[in-house]
Amino acid sequence: MAASALRVKDPRRAGGAAQARLRILLGHLQGPATPAIAASPTLAAVVPSNFHPPKFQYTLDNNVLTLEQRQFYEDNGFLVIKNLVSDEDIQRFRNQFERICRKEVECPGIDIMKDVTIAKSTHSLNENIVTKIQNFQGDEELFRYCTLPQITKYVECFTGPNIMAMHTMLINKPPDSGKMTSRHPMHQDLHYFSFRPPNSIVCAWTAMEHIDRNNGCLVVLPGTHKGTLKPHDYPKWEGGVNKLFHGIQDYDANQPRVHLVMEKGDTVFFHPLLIHGSGSNKTKGFRKAISCHYASSDCFYTDVKGTSQENIEKEVQVLSDRKFEGLKIQLKDIWMIRARLVKGKRINL
Ligand SMILES: CCCCCCCCCC(=O)SCCNC(=O)CCNC(=O)[C@H](O)C(C)(C)COP(=O)(O)OP(=O)(O)OC[C@H]1O[C@@H](n2cnc3c(N)ncnc32)[C@H](O)[C@@H]1OP(=O)(O)O
Ligand SMILES: Nc1ncnc2c1ncn2[C@@H]1O[C@H](COP(=O)(O)OP(=O)(O)OP(=O)(O)O)[C@@H](O)[C@H]1O
Ligand SMILES: O=C(O)CCC(=O)C(=O)O
Ligand SMILES: [Fe+2]
Ligand SMILES: [Mg+2]
Asked: An example of a Gene Ontology BP annotation on this entry (predicted)?
């Protein structure tokens, strides 16, 4: 099975007697090896001379990240690269977003969301009504973002050479109406995904303007990528919550948080288990960011039946029922339809 094949790649997680010995040998990753073990001829015999214990779990060997950057991602689950996308490119994405909102261009497969507080009003669509667009893989102008070489260069450090764009968004966080619905609750993106393993998935999120706590920056809980996927559901917010904006239920407000203040063009890469959210927009402007979730094409699809992700699958099924007229499709089918190759070979996804 693909899952177990992937697991044994990391000897620290593998079972069996030989693997247990390997695990002892790798013990120096957690602390210094005892001289007795290091000198053992028996143990030396089971370890091939070309075997190098993996120092890193969340990043791949490459010449792109500095050691410090690599260690930062390993420890924290995110990495900000300053000034990665040019003003010219950001202006092009902004222009195309406006054309899509005004329905001046067709964009097959796109989902357009209005804020929950105005969802039932009958404004004609424009860029001051739309809170985000999702799944723009079919739009060549916006999809350019996913293929920018300076972005994929970093993505490759997490996914390897075969890169799929799985999920695309342009978020247009509106000025808060006073009901605090412009917040995005604390969540892990993996909750929405029915493909694995998590370490081969990464999000690139680029600020399209200066973003700080006033207009609702990203808030991350450093190191939470080392944990597991937590159950998610709608937060009990008085002013309402946007469709599909699930949050972690047992969120501890006392955990250390980092507010990511970013300039236009700065890009954060983050792990799909990293707990993050974004604050309300207290300004009069629409706060814009563009993002893509990438995965290695040798990831595999999973069935979410019997897991904490059943609730998101059910909701997505209701939405897709409306769209695809009663066709009962699974979460993994949705992702398969959306996935688009960026670089290398399409393998499993
Ligand atoms: C979300 C966090 C992202 C994290 C990373 C991974 C995310 C992956 C999540 C997914 O991709 S799930 C997969 C499927 N869905 C999407 O990708 C897009 C989600 N958004 C949508 O599908 C639409 O924007 C939505 C269904 C919410 C609205 O669709 P329409 O443009 O057809 O809206 P319409 O105006 O016809 O309204 C339909 C109903 O939705 C309601 N509605 C619209 N916007 C809403 C909103 N923002 N919040 C709550 N309800 C909303 C609206 O009131 C109305 O309710 P009723 O049926 O009771 O009349
Ligand atoms: N008590 C809480 N319980 C659950 N989630 C919270 C709580 N407080 C904040 N959050 C979440 O933390 C993230 C950022 O919130 P934050 O408080 O930083 O933003 P804000 O309230 O808009 O701004 P500020 O705190 O600067 O007024 C959001 O995802 C928000 O939903
Ligand atoms: O507010 C944002 O820009 C990020 C929202 C987010 O984390 C998401 O949509 O998954
Ligand atoms: Fe997210
Ligand atoms: Mg707050």
From this structure: fatty acid alpha-oxidation
